[in-house]
Design a protein that fits this description.
14 helices, 0% strand
């Protein structure tokens, strides 16, 4: 796959660059460039990112960072079985529990929420940092919802992190998930309150909490382009009437 001229491979994280030092120099550079493309495309063009991840995988399948990148690219394209296999491989290589929550979410994607819940109660969870533990809680709540256990999902999300007024990188997503679960359970007033709290914490627009809040408040947004087209159509109709 073509690599844009502005991609040098130096853009990758220093820890990944260190992993690639086990490869011959030219090969390491090629792998690095493909990993840069995975990171660049994974949000806006997941299929493109997946393609570059497969190239990196063919070049350096024994590098943990490559297996992890391939896992995330497969995950982004909803190839959950493939993603889980790559995450497991990366975990075997590193011994880290960092990927445990996304591995559990792959189990959900494969239609096995019970397995995801088993993973939420495993010893590996205690090895996660705070962000990882919050992520695991979100996955567990999602698994409860998959199983139709709305009240249990709500309880799962109730935590010191949810109650805290401090804003952390995970705060908006945690509040959003709680609000969404409340709404699904028919607790509209509480859901509105928590969507509002999610908006307060969502400084980088990682959720659509503001849209959900507006929807609950009965606010309708009109696309400016649609409105212009409507005005032009009305003008054309008026012109026809004049003729």
């Amino acid at each position: 796959m073509p690599i844009p001229e502005d991609v040098t491979g130096d853009e990758i994280d220093k820890d990944v660059r260190q992993e690639l030092q086990s490869l011959p120099k030219t090969l390491a550079e090629d792998v690095a460039k493909n990993l840069v493309m995975v990171a660049r495309l994974i949000d806006e063009d997941p299929e493109g990112a997946y393609g570059y991840s497969r190239v990196a995988l063919r070049l350096a399948s024994r590098v943990a960072a490559v297996r992890e990148a391939a896992g995330f690219a497969a995950y982004a394209t909803q190839k959950y079985g493939e993603a889980l296999a790559e995450f497991r491989a990366a975990r075997r290589m590193t011994g880290s529990a960092e990927l445990w929550p996304v591995m559990a979410d792959c189990e959900r994607g494969l239609g096995r929420p019970e397995k995801a819940l088993d993973m939420a109660g495993a010893p590996e969870v205690h090895k996660l940092d705070k962000a990882g533990q919050v992520e695991m809680r979100l996955v567990a709540a999602g698994a409860r919802r998959d199983m139709g256990q709305l009240d249990a999902a709500i309880v799962t999300l109730q935590s010191p992190e949810l109650a805290s007024n401090a804003v952390q990188p995970w705060t908006a997503r945690l509040r959003y998930a709680y609000a969404d679960a409340l709404l699904a359970a028919g607790r509209r007033g509480e859901a509105r309150e928590w969507f509002a709290k999610a908006v307060e914490a969502d400084r980088d627009g990682s959720t659509d909490a503001s849209d959900r809040l507006a929807e609950l408040d009965g606010v309708e947004f009109v696309d400016a382009l649609d409105e212009t087209q409507a005005d032009e159509t009305a003008g054309d109709e008026d012109a026809k009437d004049d003729d």
